[in-house]
Amino acid sequence: MQSLPIRLNPGDDLRAAIEASMRGADCRAAFVVAGIGSLSSAGLRFAGAQQPRRFTGDIEILSLAGSVNFDGAHGSSHLHMALSTASGEVFGGHVAPSCIVRTTAEVLLALLPEWDFSRAPDVLTGYLELEITKRDIKPGEGQL
After folding, report:
1. Can you give the residue ranges of every domain in the chain?
2. Neighbours of 126 (CB within 10 A)
3. What tens digit of pLDDT does each residue of 106-117 get?
């Protein structure tokens, strides 16, 4: 496992920036170990909901964690986040696309170069679920 701390800037899309950082490290499997920061716009899909709830304004990321994979030209994240609004209300759920950084976001990625993550339909859950495969790594490959 290799660690990769990243700092996101105002206007960055949280999910896209995390996936781009992982691709930039030439890695196809990673976990978001921790994340904090602020957002101007966020979406969370609550358990059992079909659509995310959108939030705008001054939003704090209290916690961010999840798995990220790179499968061909597509990244795929399964991220969960707890956030607080300017009034102090706290919400948590699945991170939806278009969570935009307000001032900064600080994220720690655990890169797993010896592994491949992908998503495939699961008959038990009915969702695309994580599939984990060990990679055959050649000397010098998968190093930061």
Report:
1. 2-134
2. 8
3. 999 999 999 999
